[in-house]
Amino acid sequence: MPGTDIEPKPASKKPADKKPADKKQADKKPVSQDELVADIDRTRQELAATIDAISDRLNPANAARRTVERVRERVAQVDPVLAGSAAVAVAGIAIAYVLLRRRKR
Fold first, then answer.
1. What Cα–Cα distance (Å) separates residue 9 from each residue in 14, 16, 68, 76, 91?
2. DSSP readout, 56-70?
3. CA torsion angle for 6, 12, 17, 22 (degrees, to 10)?
């Protein structure tokens, strides 16, 4: 190949060994057509469930719904004492602001 230091490997003249990817496949006996059909149906159902899960995750409306649910859960976990303290602090700042504005006039 021009411009590269890597040379392509020559094609092997030896036939490829067809080894099963899984040892369990090598130990299995031939299966009947009914078993194959059942396996195909099971695989089809699993694939359909996977596709449904992917489409659910990619749907913007569902993503927004999940985000709202997460925010609600986090709000529900807020410590009431901390929330009350924060509310008092905000109210105090608001009152101080109003009083200072009145003094300047």
1. 14, 15, 56, 63, 77
2. HHH-HHHHHHHHHHH
3. 10
Q: What is the C-alpha separation between 28 and 34, in angstroms, rounded?
A: 16
* pTM as predicted: 0.39
Over 50: is that where the pLDDT of 58 sits?
yes
CB within 8 A of 20, min separation 6: which ones? 26
What burial letters (b/e) apply to 19-44, b meaning 16+ CB within 10 Å? eeeeeeeeeeeeeeeeeeeeeeeeee
**Alpha helix (H) residue ranges in the chain:** 23-27, 33-58, 60-76, 80-104
